[in-house]
Amino acid sequence: MTMKKFLAASAVALCGLFAQQATAQSLEKMNWFNEPAKWEISNKSKFVMQVPAQTDYWRISHYGFTVDDAPFYYALYGGEFEAKVKITGNYKTTFDQMGLMLRVDHENWIKAGIEYVDGKQNVSTVVTHKTSDWSVVELSDAPRSIWIKAVRRLDAVEVFYSLDDKKYTMLRTCWLQDNCPVMVGIMGASPDGAGFEAIFEHFEVKQLPDQRRLEWAKKQQAH
């Protein structure tokens, strides 16, 4: 075996090993953006916060205002990854919301989870690149909890939800800048309400093998 083929084979093997490593993110070591007054970590995998009143993330479109003041608890990740969390909210007021957030900067971010509208739970995704858009799917029932998953591959993010952590339904595919670090974590907001209790469980991020590197390694092995 030539050195080139050996390196290519090693790259494939290492990428495969790396993909197996799903990490329950160490909640104690994450960072705050807009830290709320009340929050706690219990049993290492359960995170509870009181979402503050009159907080949100939105930029410009439709409403004509920009807000960037809701709590977001995150860690920084590069490359490609899968993030997942179980969310349970004591929703009270229209637009109460919680879920995952992926954030490059104040003009480029994605939030996905439950948003409470007119007494109904909606699976919601807001994608922002300078201006925000919003897509929702109303849930026929009011589940106690749901799971939200976001998968970053190259220049795209796929967003999914599940009622049982087994069957996942795709909500959205959207663009996110490639080859840059991303803040990945959990958020809650209560734009029109007095706040609510938000419970996050089993937040984890699994680093995925770089797709371009895998393709390069396979081509080298073929030669």
What does this structure look like?
By secondary structure, the protein is mainly β. The chain has one domain (22-208): Jelly Rolls (Sandwich). 13% of the residues lie in helices and 53% in strands. The radius of gyration is 19 Å and the shape is globular.
Which tags fit this structure?
223 residues; mainly beta; Jelly Rolls; 8-stranded antiparallel β-sheet; 7-stranded antiparallel β-sheet; 13% helix
Please report the distance between the alpha carbons of the first and last residues. Answer: 11 Å
- The helix/strand series, from N terminus to C terminus, equals HEEEEEEEEEEEEEEEEEH
Helix content: 10-25%
CATH level 1 class label: Mainly Beta
Write down the CATH topology: Jelly Rolls
The global form is: globular
Number of helices: 2
Portion in strands: over 45%
Low-confidence stretches: 6-21
- What radius of gyration results from the CA coordinates? 19 Å
Overall average pLDDT: 90
Instruction: Tell me how many strands there are.
Output: 17
Number of domains: 1
- Largest sheet features: 8 strands, antiparallel
**What's the CATH architecture?**
Sandwich
Class inferred from helices and paired strands: mainly beta
Outline:
The protein is mostly beta strands and 223 residues long. The chain contains 2 helices and 17 strands. It has helices at residues 3-19, 211-222; strands spanning 22-24, 31-33, 39-42, 46-51, 57-59, 66-68, 72-77, 80-89, 97-105, 108-117, 120-129, 131-138, 146-153, 156-162, 169-175, 182-189, 196-208.
